[in-house]
Design goal:
- This protein is an alpha+beta fold.
- The protein contains ten helices and 29 strands.
- Helix 1 packs across helix 4, helix 2 runs antiparallel to helix 3 and helix 5 packs across helix 6.
- The chain is elongated, with a radius of gyration of 54 Å.
- This is VanW family protein.
- It comes from Candidatus Avichristensenella intestinipullorum.
- Keywords: Membrane, Signal, Transmembrane, Transmembrane helix.
Length: 481
């Protein structure tokens, strides 16, 4: 544009050169502002996208457990989805035990099961939820890259003790104890026996069955059938063995005196044992078997030992039966439970091989060590008393005998005088005979066809020395020495 001058001439306006840099600078500033604003807007939009992604209250994409994709699921939804899968797995958890006519099922209904699913869910939930926003977003984006997704597989366990209880129960149900043949009757008159038959048993190896079952469960062999091995168990005693080996084990006889009362007592005591059965491990008591020896039972007065003296007593003489029984049972391999020797040795058995009894304080008690019952036959006849023991043989050619050895002897050399004011004045009466004292050791001898093969110490018998003793009354009480 031209400007007119006062004289009428037009004047050209000059261009200001310095405005060009200003304009350029302003244009650059505007462009920079635009670029900066665009970048900030893009960063803000990216931030919002990141914040929205990491703020999800569901599992991130690219995470799975047991093949179940958890992306987009809440924790409760994920638990429910996995619970359905576990139900299917639990339903398939079963085995069958086949024992022929009987079958048992082992399943999750009887065996508690558990999974580590909750632990895996917490681990999966933690992915992308630790660190800065950028770190969390980077972890989430990484899950979407090929080959970088996260897959967990749960582990489950089952109650092995519950399995053992089930297999043990099966083994117990199938186990039948064998039954030995036994003696059911003894005819003491003709010495014959009646036997029962043996019965076979069966058993199952409970430990082997348990190990087989858990091995198949651990392998995942669900639905399989496990054959139960049932083994036949034979009894230890058969009827044939009893018939071949049952019979007379031992017998012992002693001679009695001519005293009729004493022989009557011996006969009654022997009859109490005639036909008696002693079961394996059972104890036999002389006093319990005969009971108290009383007149009402037919026992009579006869000689007996009391306080080192011979006295008349109802039932006197029955110690000969107890001593005869003692010798028979020792030879039948019975154990001694209670036994006492007499005050002095008896003349009807060797020294050290007697057994005294007295109701109710002194008793003879023996125990049957055999695995079979032992039957007794006992009787008095012609001034002898005999006791026989019938049972399983001690072994082919084996028998037992006794041997006693006197290790100490003391002969009385003094006479004892005792004042008794109840005697008639001027009299002197013998009240005790002198008796030699002994110590005797008794041994059990094992014989093979009559030849000793071993011996064992049984017991020691002590017979006190008894001095000859008199009571007197000379009409005055003797002075103290």
């Amino acid at each position: 544009m031209k400007q007119k001058l006062p004289n009428g001439r037009a004047r050209r306006k000059r261009f200001l050169w310095w405005t060009l840099p200003v304009i350029t600078l302003m244009a650059c500033a505007l462009f920079f502002a635009y670029v900066t604003a665009s970048e900030q807007l893009s960063a803000y939009e990216e931030f919002e996208r990141m914040r929205a992604e990491v703020s999800r209250d569901t599992f991130y994409d690219g995470i799975s457990i047991d093949g179940v994709a958890l992306g987009g699921m809440t924790m409760d939804e994920a638990r429910a989805a996995l619970a359905d899968r576990q139900t299917v797995q639990a339903d398939s958890f079963e085995l069958f035990l086949d024992a022929g006519e009987m079958t048992w099922r082992i399943s999750s209904q009887e065996v508690p099961m558990s999974w580590n699913t909750e632990e895996l869910l917490q681990r999966a939930w933690a992915i992308g939820r630790a660190g800065t926003l950028e770190e969390r977003y980077a972890a989430i984006r990484k899950l979407k890259e090929p080959g970088l997704s996260v897959a967990y597989f749960s582990e489950f366990t089952y109650d092995r003790q519950a399995v053992r209880a089930l297999t043990d129960e099966v083994a117990a149900r199938l186990t039948v104890e064998p039954k030995n043949a036994s003696v059911v009757a003894f005819n003491v008159t003709d010495r014959t026996f009646a036997f029962s038959d043996e019965q076979m048993g069966q058993r199952v190896d409970a430990e082997a069955l348990y190990q087989t079952v858990v091995a198949m469960l651990d392998q995942g062999s669900y639905g399989a059938t496990v054959p139960v091995s049932v083994q036949t168990v034979s009894p230890s005693v058969t009827r044939a063995q009893l018939e071949a080996n049952y019979g007379l084990i031992s017998t012992y006889t002693t001679k009695t005196t001519s005293n009729e009362n004493r022989n009557t007592n011996i006969r009654l005591a022997a009859e109490a044992f005639n036909g008696l059965m002693i079961a394996p491990g059972e104890e036999i008591s002389f006093n319990e078997t005969t009971g108290e020896r009383t007149r009402e039972k037919g026992y009579l007065e006869a000689g007996a030992i009391e306080n080192g003296r011979t006295v008349q007593e109802v039932g006197g003489g029955v110690c000969q039966v107890s001593s005869t029984l003692f010798n028979t049972l020792l030879r039948a391999n019975f154990d001694i439970v209670t036994r006492r020797p007499h005050a002095w040795p008896s003349d009807y058995v060797p020294r050290g091989e007697d057994a005294t009894v007295d109701w109710p304080r002194l008793d003879l008690v023996m125990r049957n060590t055999s695995e079979a019952p032992v039957f007794l036959a006992a009787w008095y006849e012609d001034r002898t008393v005999t006791v026989e023991a019938y049972g399983l043989s001690l072994g082919e050619g084996l028998s037992i005998d006794l041997w006693s050895e006197t290790s100490y002897t003391k002969t009385p050399t003094e006479i004892v005088e005792t004042y008794n004011p109840d005697l008639p004045v001027g009299t002197r009466e013998k009240v005790k005979d002198a008796r030699t004292g002994y110590r005797v050791e008794t041994y059990k001898l094992w014989l093979q066809n009559g030849v000793e093969i071993s011996r064992e110490y049984l017991y020691t018998s002590e017979y006190a020395t008894i001095y000859e003793e008199y009571e007197y009354n000379y009409g005055y009480e003797p002075e103290e020495p």
